[in-house]
Design a protein that fits this description.
6 helices, mainly alpha
Length: 151
């Protein structure tokens, strides 16, 4: 199971990094609204990871699928967070100041605030998408025998 979520977690992180660098090349990395695509990237990677794990097993147990989804997203979030920390602290130190300035807050905030926001958004996205996908992929408890007893 470690191979599944590490492979897909690293894959999600690589796609997130490539997407960010493409935005940087086009000069669009300053617009936080474009990070909504990150949710699509997380969703696609986690869904593929859970489906891959499900294809290897005869019956998907809810807790195992949930574990795969959480670890895929968690690994991706940690790797992407480390990349963004490296980027904001070493490569483009003005990036975080420009983003935080656009938030129009009355007090000074540092780069760490933006980094914590990135990590929290990644983990929140992971939890919500894992819960959603497991509702779609779990086996129903409704049986043919139970369906005949309904109105």
């Amino acid at each position: 199971m470690f191979k599944v979520y590490s492979r897909y977690g690293i894959g999600i992180a690589v796609v997130l990094i490539v997407y960010f660098l493409l935005l940087k090349l086009m000069g669009l990395h300053q617009y936080p609204v474009l990070s909504a695509v990150n949710g699509l990237i997380y969703g696609a990677g986690m869904y593929l990871g859970i489906k891959h794990y499900n294809s290897r097993k005869n019956k998907l147990k809810y807790e195992k699928g949930f574990e795969v989804g959480l670890f895929c997203g968690g690994i991706a979030t940690v790797i992407f967070g480390a990349f963004m920390a490296l980027y904001m602290y070493q490569i483009d130190t003005e990036f975080s100041a420009n983003i935080l300035e656009s938030w129009n807050l009355e007090y000074a905030m540092g780069t760490l605030t933006l980094l914590i926001s990135i990590l929290l958004m990644g983990f929140a996205t992971t939890i919500v998408l894992t819960l959603t996908f497991m509702q779609l992929l779990k086996k129903s408890w409704n049986t043919q025998d139970g369906n005949r007893n309904t109105l």
